């Protein structure tokens, strides 16, 4: 059974103070990158007096960007040959004019994999925590978010997984669901790719183009990939695609 909750697109209601001098503050769970912000008072305080004073505080925004030209990809080599996770937190921002492209991909030998792709300008997340021994099909789950993402604006992707429970979010819109299959751990081999994959023939993906555009602040389970790329860290490999004829 798949349970989906959709949280409507960032329309937030905050309570203010009820006296004349108190200050009430709220933290936003998702950062806002915006030019305009609309504040709509929905109720005045119990005494009925009218007054509104709002302060917005930003924080230092550290931006590290990797540009992909459609022919290359990067891979982050895990410290051990295999990694197994019960929990994952993955996030990055992306900007492109293309409507297809692989943003992230990793797989393991037990049929586990995770991929984030653009397909017809929608963001498509697929996860399998392992092939089922009961079902002939792999235990995969695929979800889509957004539309018209080839608009050359920044979009924010975030994934939180705890066992089979996933929160998949794009620009603050969240899909909550439970993964199919019998397993609870993501088992991956040696590396994770961003912007494309190396050996198409080895991967389960049918041919899909590499990503062309920018990715910003890639964080994979507290590993800051874009920072490692900028520092030319040895755990990062830059893959240049060799041309293969596709018939
Ligand atoms: C997992 O299942 C999928 C779909 O049936 C299949 O294509 C793939 O080869 C399987 N992988 C492994 C490692 O058994
Ligand atoms: C998903 O979001 C809900 C509501 O914010 C939270 O209670 C839950 O713990 C989150 N799940 C994961 C896997 O992060
Ligand atoms: C096996 O697949 C069927 C149909 O797709 C599904 O209803 C069932 O829950 C699956 N069983 C397991 C253990 O995943
Ligand atoms: Ca697994």
TrEMBL record:
It is found in: Membrane. It is a single-pass type I membrane protein. One of its GO terms (cellular component) is membrane. Residues 1-59 form the F5/8 type C domain. Residues 1-20 form the signal peptide. Residues 65-247 form the Laminin G domain. Keywords: EGF-like domain, Membrane, Signal, Transmembrane, Transmembrane helix. CDD domains: LamG. Its main location: membrane. InterPro entries: ConA-like_dom_sf, FA58C, Galactose-bd-like_sf, Laminin_G, Neurexin-related_CASP. The keyword Transmembrane applies. This is Laminin G domain-containing protein. It comes from Laticauda laticaudata.
